[in-house]
Amino acid sequence: MNICLIGDSLTSLALAKNLINKNIKVFVYYKDTKNSSFQSRTIGISKNNFDFFDKEIIKFKKGMFWKIKQIEIYSEKLKDEKILNFENNKEELFLIAKNNEIYELLEKDLKKNKLFKKILIKNNNFYKKILKEQKYELIINCDGNNKISRNFFYNKINKSYNSNAYTTIIKHQNIKNEKAIQIFTKMGPVAFLPISNSETSIVFSIINKKVILNENEIKNLISQYNENYDIKSFGKLEKFELNFSVSRNYYYKNLMAFGDSLHKIHPLAGQGFNMILRDINILSKIIQDRIDLGLQIDHSIYEVFEKKTKHFNFIFSSGNDFIYEFFKFDNKYKNNYLNQLVKFLGENKLFNKIASKYADQGLSI
């Protein structure tokens, strides 16, 4: 059995490894982009998704991830007052890992596997050719910016946040560092995400990208909202644009969209990669069911996958977008009614339980 994946993103490599674990031969076609990987970008993985990744994709190396046992959410309008607090003393709420370290772990493992082959896309004729070839049971496009996405998966709900996210890693004094902090500021949300007792990842989403800030100004803003760390140094500051995108169609003939080709959401709650891992989990189960029953694996599974994920993914991504817009709207006004409402809900144990489950497991039947 041969499966073709287009794109060599973290999503593509994670899916490839999962398929190879089922003894399926995987061909990854990729473009030689000169862009360097984001060294300061980190990924938040829910406990549920971490267990799936560790068991069904590849085992994490010791020290690659950091456990978060508490999440505190603040609004600049309420100064030092917490509006939401999630805490679990028994086990972690989610885990943080460096994007490039997970990528390198997968890449190194796949290169040694005989079922894996990586092929460079030399020109745009590849895309026309791949559609005509019959040598792959499945062709899955994981690249949201290539010709296939533009030609066949262009029917999307798109939205620009008109903002940029800045990421960096700060080094600080050695402390017990198990608490993630999100602050909704007048400039945009800033997240402090621990990755060790002496390092913390920062994601600062500046609301208006027309506001030009230099590196020192961004660092000063981070320092302004930091109340927990004695910052010794800043790592490389990196920037990327923020957009919302949800595809209306999941497949076309023998092609299926996946990962960023299906959905992109605001990194606000760290749920982008979690959505993708849940999609891999569902697709993996569909394929495994076919294997167990001795049934043929072909593009008829695309429809099954779409029915199981499309509506839940749309609701989940829209919910994430609503949270961002809610606090953005609230910051425009001087009263604190909306923040006080969120604080009131956060004090409700049932709301806390539902919100934690939503972040960990997403939406499912």
Characterization of this structure:
The protein is an alpha/beta fold. It has a single domain, classed as FAD/NAD(P)-binding domain. The protein is 37% helix and 29% strand. It is built from ten helices and 18 strands. The strands form three sheets. Strands 5, 6, 10, 11, 12, 13, 14, 15 and 18 form a nine-stranded mixed sheet that branches. Strands 8-2-1-9-17-16 form a six-stranded mixed sheet. A three-stranded antiparallel sheet has the order 3-7-4. Helix 1 crosses helix 3. The longest helix is centred in the last third of the chain and has 30 residues. This is Squalene epoxidase domain-containing protein. One of its GO terms (molecular function) is squalene monooxygenase activity.
Query: CATH homologous superfamily name?
Result: FAD/NAD(P)-binding domain
Estimated helix fraction:
25-40%
Count of alpha/pi helices: 10
Low-confidence parts lasting 5 or more residues at pLDDT below 50? none
Share of β-strand residues: 25-35%
Which CATH top level class fits? Alpha Beta
Q: How many domains in all?
A: 1
Q: What characteristic shape results from the CA principal axes?
A: globular
**Second CATH tier, the architecture:** 3-Layer(bba) Sandwich
CATH topological fold name: FAD/NAD(P)-binding domain
Helix and strand pattern: EHEEHEEEEHEHEHEEEEHEEEEEHHHH
Protein structure class: alpha/beta
What gyration radius follows from the Cα positions, in whole Å? 21 Å
Main pleated-sheet profile: 9 strands, mixed
How confident is the prediction overall: mean pLDDT?
86
The overall strand count is 18
Q: What's the end-to-end separation, in Å?
A: 30 Å
GO cellular component, one term: membrane
InterPro entries: FAD/NAD-bd_sf (IPR036188), Squalene_epoxidase (IPR013698), UbiH/COQ6_monooxygenase (IPR051205)
Organism: marine metagenome
Protein name: Squalene epoxidase domain-containing protein
